[in-house]
């Protein structure tokens, strides 16, 4: 499986310390505050991926009264969109796709897009639902569970190399920030009956947790 670690190797110790400090997590005695998320500075994440903040894309505003506050995350689940990607990398075109995903989720009664992050074909990582709120991406398994979705249908096509690189980086960075154990990285199919994240991506998810 394709993996690239060059960029993520930079100053991991310092990055982890910065992210944990921003999140308010305390390592001493293996104790962590229950909800370190309201003040989480995603600048730490932006240091390791090409991050597009929610404020930078024109998505439908969250219906916060429908959202559930999140606790400390201890697992992470990878998804695919399930719709064929034409490989477009133009930012405006991708933004339109993500807006449609968000609007579709809200039309189904979700308070916001179900995923915390979306990875596009160019390898950009888009902030979705705020980390202050529990996701809506695995039925019955959303508690303490970060959601990452890659655009495309990976039952039928293969993810772009830039997407795989970005998935590696964002997964490793989030694991560092929230102290998520490697074996707690899942594909959607591990938690629910589903083909997601597709046969052409799932093997890489297995690699990420081993």
What does this structure look like?
This protein is α/β, with parallel strands linked by helices. The chain has one domain (7-208): 3-Layer(aba) Sandwich (Lysozyme-like). It is 31% helix and 12% strand. The protein has six helices and six strands. It has a six-stranded mixed sheet. Strand 3 (117-119) and strand 4 form a beta hairpin. The longest helix is centred in the last third of the chain and has 18 residues, at 161-178. The model is unreliable at 1-36 (pLDDT under 50).
> What would CATH call the homologous superfamily?
Peptidoglycan recognition protein-like
Strand residue content: 5-15%
Which sequence of SSEs, written as H and E, runs from N to C?
HHEEHEEEHEHH
Mean pLDDT: 84
Keywords:
210 residues; alpha/beta; Lysozyme-like; 6-stranded mixed beta sheet; 6 helices; 12% strand
